[in-house]
Amino acid sequence: MFSVSSAYEVASNLREELRGNTGSSRGAERDSRTWKRTWALKIKAKLKHFVWRVYKGWIAVNSALNKRGIKVDEQSKRCGEGLEKIEHVSFHCRKSILIWKMSSVQWDGIQHLTESFPDWWDKLREARASEDFTARLEISVYTLWQIWKSRNSWLFEEKETEPLLIAQRALNEWNEFKPVHPQTNVPTQSISSEEGTQGWRCPESGMVRINVSSFRGASNGGTGIGLVMRHENGGLVLAKPSLLEATQSSLSAELESIRMGLQEAQGRGLKKVEMQIDEMNIVMWLQRQIRPIAEVMAIVDDI
Ligand SMILES: [Zn+2]
């Protein structure tokens, strides 16, 4: 998994956005604003309720149960290193720290606010609603939700799941609810008279959708990549699996499959291509929202 080092950028934006907003009282007005903005997020309704319950301290962590007169050990059983408040479960429990590290969304710039979930949440949801920022915010809610679920399955079912897997579940759940379809224009300079021999030609107005995906553990022990090209009416244009060398990271495999997809599209003289990309970091990179890492640069320069 790849850490998006956007903390500095986010912190700077937040500083600008929130200058003059001290908001330390938790009055009805603040609640009302938070509720409205939380509800406006394009996430599953149950997650809007979930984050609202967390915000209001209505989640049944041990310290909250004690406040309601239910006697439980207030210590976090999972790590034994602190009172189990919602902030502990969400951010500071040993497992939660690992899950956030594996997440594609990092909010290091506002780390100090994690002592109070309401402060943390209000800082985030009051920031400027750029598309990229909103996506990160949404993924964060799915991450919090998965962290909470993993706490419960550990506590009640004694099930332990890898932090990376939990972070990926959050990203998948977000992706399923709100798919990302960045549009990529393919250059057309290489159209030749030979292209008819491919047996298929995209209509001028037609849109072709390319799905690329990569997976580890292919039959040769290496990384497999898959490329599926469909016409907008659903008709299959091309389905092409390939194998890469075993040493490929999943990021470079994903990029390799994108390059393959673009080459195939270019070879067919396609003008309108919609590419579906699973890897959120690449999508963000393509939208020029994050600083590319060296590995990405090397491959994309070559496209
Ligand atoms: Zn803990």
Automatic annotation (TrEMBL):
Q: Which residues form the RNase H type-1 domain?
A: 218-291
Q: Which InterPro entries match?
A: RNase_H-like_dom_plant, RNase_H-like_EbsB-rel, RNaseH_domain, RNaseH_sf, RVT-Znf
UniProt domain Reverse transcriptase zinc-binding: residue ranges:
2-100
Please provide an example of a Pfam family that matches this protein in its UniProt record: zf-RVT
What superkingdom heads the lineage?
A: Eukaryota
MF GO annotations? nucleic acid binding; RNA-DNA hybrid ribonuclease activity
UniProt protein name: OLC1v1017559C1
**Origin organism of this chain?**
Oldenlandia corymbosa var. corymbosa
